[in-house]
Here is the input.
Amino acid sequence: MNHAGPLIRISSLARYRELVRELGGHPEAFLREFNIAPELLDVHHAMIPMQSMVQLFELTASQLDCADFGLRLSAQQDWNVIGPVSLIARNAPDVGAALDDFARFVGFYSAGTIIALDRTDPAAPRLTYRFELGREITRHRQTVERALGVMHNTMALLLDDRAFHAQAVLFRHGAALPLQRYRKHFKTNVLFGQEVDGLVLHPAQIIRPISQHNRMMREFLIDFVSSAMSRHPRTVRELVTAAIDRLLPTGRCTLHAVAEQLARRERTLQRQLANEGVTFEQVVDAVRRDWSESYLAELAMPIAQIAGLLGYGEQSSYNRACRRWFGQTPLERRRALLG
Here is the structure.
């Protein structure tokens, strides 16, 4: 059984609908093929399984007979797809520090994405890209070519140079397009069958100062993104858990309500949770158990209030749940927690 794996921000699909329509396709049909609700593309903080994005790009390229789909999409995207991380980078003192910021905080955008600035060869520093999805995903050329295209656009923005070009562009896969198509896009030499995917930069490019950087703004944004990453949901189960946390006290924590918050269909959400080995009911039960421990440790909080905060209509239902979780009544569990 396949697992949903790491998540990626929906901003990775910026301009996807528009490009597919330009090519004569129907983006909504492709999105639904991978259980991505089309309306989710308008929810800026939403996340989807990275595996779905990779497969979506491959299917779209195949169905539209557009072998350079990834490159075309990258031409319509820039560093804004990774949100606040781009603001950290553009407030760095120089380009090298900005690229280190991207490497450090790219997990805010996608837990499965790894960017690194390799300075091993001072004459040929490399900005490399890879993602972790497991061996079952064997076709991912469109995703890699899109990613390197966006990295190329980002370098042009950091250097404030529309004519930016790297020393070379490296791809692990073989050329699927005429070499001239790649050279036209990247404006430099493009090599295939390499050990890494990435851009080989000029040494002078990574030491270029960023004139408009703001140290205080950068520090503020680093604190914000670091805090967000520490509690950042990486799986569908974690997304559901966060939604349940918000909905339990309202008394309307249902599968329908959670699916609505996550802009997914109920059956889709159930299937994605099943891929991670749990049911919606099991996640709700686990959240209730965890909160029950916290609430019972507060001596001044009445048992009836705790039952309500956990979404139980009757205190007797909460009593039964406590016996199932802990082998104790709520009062007995409270005494145990308080020593």
Observations:
- The first strand starts at residue 7 and ends at 9.
- Strands lie at 7-9, 47-49, 113-118, 126-131, 168-170, 189-191, 197-200.
- DSSP finds 17 helices and seven strands in the chain.
- Residues 323 and 329 are 6 Å apart (CA to CA).
